[in-house]
């Protein structure tokens, strides 16, 4: 199936199949309860709410992990089955508009081997703009039979990043806003800057003004800077391993392959003062 789907495609699937699983991933770092509250007020019929911190992240260990560690694969698999996902289910994920949260669940499902998973392009806002129905009803799902197998090759540890920093074939891509990457401002984590050698490709630039992904040819042009013969290993990171998945999704959509994820990202990198940081010197 396509990696991106439209609201009308999803509406049609809901009328044709009872094996479509929809997940609402709306979440706000500024107000962790806002996503659940928004879901309670209205959501796409049949959608289940998946909370970034309660459902899609593991426990935070101060001084060791980033802000959103990967969840335990076994625990996540149990949650997915409880949510009604089957081996042959079609899964569609969405958030408010820009897919910055939905990409987390897309990546986790892919990590567990789920291939029939897509993002609703433009998110819940696109659904509303299309004038499609919403509900406050909570779906009732029978337990599913999905059994995922995590693919450890899809992500890298902090130790591996540290070991590979000086390798010319290794390329880190930072998805955060330029002002955070440069070290001028850091609104969330205790230290500003970036991992030495990383390129800055903010995830917001994967999108149109309406919050949809750019056409594939435009994404390919955006990531042209990465088409260097010497680079054989692309690794994406951000503040806590969430919006890095946006660049991973966009790169795959553009046809340049799937980079690996550094899930600990900047928040784990700076948990120890022993790791090097870089800033952009102002002119």
Automatic annotation (TrEMBL):
Gene3D superfamilies reported for this sequence: Rhodanese-like domain
A Pfam entry, by short name: Rhodanese
Domain Rhodanese: from-to ranges: 16-136, 166-278
PROSITE patterns for the chain: RHODANESE_3
Keyword Repeat applies: yes
Record keywords: Repeat, Transferase
InterPro entries: Rhodanese-like_dom (IPR001763), Rhodanese-like_dom_sf (IPR036873), TST/MPST-like (IPR045078)
Molecular-function annotations in GO: thiosulfate-cyanide sulfurtransferase activity
Matches recorded under CDD domains: TST_Repeat_1 (cd01448), TST_Repeat_2 (cd01449)
Keyword Transferase attached: yes
Protein name per its UniProtKB record: Sulfurtransferase
